[in-house]
Specification:
By secondary structure, the chain is of the alpha/beta class. Among the domains are: 89 residues, Alpha-helical ferredoxin (Fumarate Reductase Iron-sulfur Protein, Chain B, domain 2, Orthogonal Bundle); 113 residues, Rossmann fold. The chain contains 23 helices and eight strands. Helix 22 links the parallel strand 7 and strand 8. Helix 10 packs parallel to helix 12.
């Protein structure tokens, strides 16, 4: 973690990070990434108590736009995350709410046997009000729908075609496993359409919610377990695809940057990870992508999540969606939808998340698209709740265009 904090020395106080911060633009509770990041870091250096010069850093959403915008390579969002971890440690660890929202795989697995009842319960306003008053999850925050069937149960029944010319391992993550098995099924079908055999290594939650909420110790245990399970896939087949931009970014860089995991196994897994749209576009560059998409006469707004920007691969979904005849795609004008994983579910931050997303929500209302497209699961849930429109992963759109051809 030391190298993250040392990047603060590169700060030239240009204020570029402040101009892109979506949170400080809508609330005075967060004074901006420059102040809370590199400027405040000199007061934190050498302090073992976990105290921060300004506890408002807890209002940083961790979107990472500041890090991406910094011309000097200061890891501003990461500096804030390290400082948040010290705050959490000083408070004695995560509270009940943050412990619960940081363990989506556990919640999904517990609810699966009673998924229809759990979904009805979460749609009940009286119950949501009670949950808000009891543990602080906002009554209006978007919640995923529990699935009665796990993705891996679908994968066990699935019969792959025999014409594959290459192989990838699929890191589906807990969102697909517990809440959106249909997204995982679409990923598999699209890859197989392009003669890619998909394997399903044993896996688990990447631990990102725990890391984002400030429990690096638990996050490190999750990371070590997952790296151990994916290590063999990093060698054979050598490519690991992920459909979640946040989980993929965690595997690519955050274990090393934030958790100090820089062993051979972690480096091997990090180098093997591709975002699924990044991988599909690379297939196209090699002339190996099937472009026989059926027309989809529709209008869509595409919102590239802020976590995708951290991958440094541009917006590959934009190029892929442009291949679908009849589909008119307008790109989001917003840098962030506001929710930032679990951030927007919290009662004290929900309105901030809604205010940050207002640019996107207004654009959608003005454009009146048939649907919205976004690579991140929590962003999809947040946008769908705020707009009332269906929101799909880009690969789901490609899957639909393939199936209609």
């Amino acid at each position: 973690m030391l190298h993250v904090e040392q990047t603060a020395d590169r700060c030239i106080k240009c204020n570029v990070c402040n101009t892109v911060c979506p949170v400080s633009a809508v609330t005075d509770l967060f004074p901006g990434p420059k102040y809370e990041g590199p400027q405040a870091q000199r007061f934190r250096a050498g302090v073992d108590t976990g105290d921060s010069p300004d506890r408002s850093l807890d209002y940083c959403s961790g979107c990472g736009l500041c890090t991406q915008a910094c011309p000097e390579g200061v890891l501003i969002a990461e500096i804030n995350q390290v400082a948040r971890e010290r705050l959490v440690s000083a408070r004695g660890g995560l509270g009940l709410r943050d412990n619960l929202v940081s363990r989506p795989s556990l919640l999904g697995a517990l609810a699966r046997p009673v998924a229809p009842l759990a979904n009805l319960a979460m749609a009940s306003r009286p119950l949501r009000v009670a949950v808000e008053k009891t543990i602080g999850v906002h009554r209006g925050a978007a919640m995923p729908r529990f699935s009665g069937t796990s993705f891996r149960s679908w994968a066990r029944r699935h019969r792959a075609p025999a014409d594959a010319t290459r192989t990838v391992a699929y890191f589906h993550g807990c969102a697909v496993e517990e809440f959106e098995p249909e997204v995982g099924a679409a990923v598999v079908r699209v890859l197989e359409r392009n003669r890619v055999r998909v394997t399903f290594p044993r896996q688990a939650c990447c631990g990102l919610p725990l890391v984002s909420n400030g429990d690096f110790g638990a996050g490190r245990r999750y990371a070590t377990r997952l790296v151990g399970r994916l290590r063999a896939a990093a060698d054979d087949p050598g490519v690991i695809v992920a459909n979640s931009t946040s989980c993929g970014m965690t595997l690519k860089a955050k274990y090393r940057e934030l958790l100090g995991l820089d062993d051979d196994a972690t480096r091997a897994v990090s180098k093997a990870v591709y975002d699924v749209c990044e991988y599909l576009l690379e297939l196209d560059d090699q002339g190996a992508l099937d472009r026989s998409f059926a027309p989809v006469p529709a209008r869509a707004v595409y919102h590239p999540p802020c976590q995708l920007m951290a991958h440094g691969v541009g917006t590959p979904a934009t190029d892929l969606l442009a291949m679908v005849p009849g589909l008119v795609v307008e790109r989001s004008q917003a840098g962030c939808c506001g929710t930032a994983g679990t951030y927007g579910t919290k009662v004290e931050k929900y309105q901030i998340a809604m205010d940050v997303g207002r640019t996107l929500f207004d654009q959608i209302a003005e454009t009146r698209p048939d649907f919205v497209v976004c690579d991140s699961e929590t962003c999809r849930w947040h946008i769908a709740k705020a707009t009332g429109l269906p929101v799909y992963h880009p690969v789901q759109v490609l899957d639909h265009a393939y199936s209609a051809s």
